[in-house]
Design a protein that fits this description.
elongated
């Protein structure tokens, strides 16, 4: 079975599965040893792969679904399904991580919805969402790195279910979780230049922490091991719309959080381990339009009029892109 899955031999795999299902159907009334079938399906080869891990690593949703269907015939809460969810391959990746890497939305939904339906508790979903691979990356970080907004939305929806009733502590840790180099989902989205993903991250963060806004502050000011912030990554990569959006978040926090007076200046003054600021990073890469935007903000900030400053950049964003993408931003009004 593993060999058939590994070679992506769909006909061979289906034939093996048909024989297994037939054997189960024939023997189920004779006290068929269900554990033997479970163990067979979860058995690993010398490389640490089972039929399930091979199937999801090859992004074969049909094979995975067939294996799970067989597991559900065995038991309402099968060991097979638990093994499928939390089994990892030799790179310490789960089915959820492989689904994201392979842009396989069917597998992603199958894992998350299957977990919710089979276990009917939040803990299993929570464990999947917060699992870290050998680089410390999570499903949320991977989705941001893949620039996949649809996957981010799905993960956030399931996170709301998984962390409900925890006074938002679990959800905050979910959004702020970093890999081993301090990289977050926001840093990934900013580096990729995905403004919609950035807006979605902040939108969910604001819903989680609508009064104190401390989560937004932590997100925007966070720096990874090279000491890059989200604004630094966007500025260096030349993502003008992302730079404007992140500046608007800084402005919003400066106006709405009395404890963050001078928030904008602090964000602009952050330095990486090489001593570069957002200005020097943009200038070195020749992104002079971003340098002009940053300089304009710096000059207006010197007026010490936060309302004028916030209004300036809200108008800039709405005039430039008053489209579906800005619906997420409407939460900031």
């Amino acid at each position: 079975l593993i060999e058939a899955c590994e070679k992506i031999d769909l006909k061979g795999t289906i034939k093996v599965l048909e024989l297994l299902i037939a054997a189960f159907e024939v023997n189920k009334e004779e006290r068929f040893d269900e554990s033997e079938l479970e163990d067979y399906l979860l058995q690993e080869n010398h490389a640490g792969f089972s039929a399930l891990t091979v199937a999801w690593s090859k992004s074969r949703s049909f094979i995975v679904d067939t294996l799970l269907t067989l597991g559900k015939k065995i038991n309402k809460q099968p060991k097979l399904f638990q093994g499928f969810l939390f089994q990892i391959d030799k790179e310490r990746k789960t089915a959820l991580m492989r689904a994201i890497e392979n842009d396989n939305e069917n597998l992603l939904f199958s894992v998350l919805e299957g977990t919710r339906q089979v276990y009917k508790n939040k803990l299993a979903v929570r464990e999947l969402l917060t699992y870290q691979d050998k680089e410390g990356s999570t499903a949320l970080i991977k989705s941001a790195q893949k620039n996949n907004v649809d996957f981010l939305k799905i993960l956030f929806d399931y996170a709301v279910f998984a962390f409900e009733g925890e006074e938002n502590l679990g959800f905050k840790l979910f959004i702020l979780r970093t890999d081993h180099k301090g990289f977050t989902s926001l840093l990934a989205a900013s580096k990729q230049g995905n403004r919609k993903a950035i807006a979605m991250i902040f939108s969910f963060a604001k819903k989680t922490d609508p009064i104190m806004l401390s989560l937004l502050h932590s997100l925007i000011m966070h720096q990874d091991q090279p000491e890059y912030s989200a604004l630094m990554y966007a500025s260096e990569a030349g993502h003008v719309d992302c730079v404007e959006y992140l500046l608007n978040i800084l402005l919003y926090l400066q106006v709405c959080m009395p404890s963050t007076k001078g928030m904008l200046l602090k964000g602009l003054n952050l330095r990486n381990e090489e001593g570069d600021s957002v200005f020097t990073l943009a200038e070195k890469k020749g992104h002079f339009s971003i340098v002009r935007i940053l300089t304009e903000v710096w000059k207006v900030d010197s007026l010490k009029n936060d309302v004028v400053l916030l209004g300036l950049f809200q108008r800039r964003i709405y005039q430039k892109d008053h489209s579906a993408d800005t619906d997420i931003f409407s939460d900031w009004e």
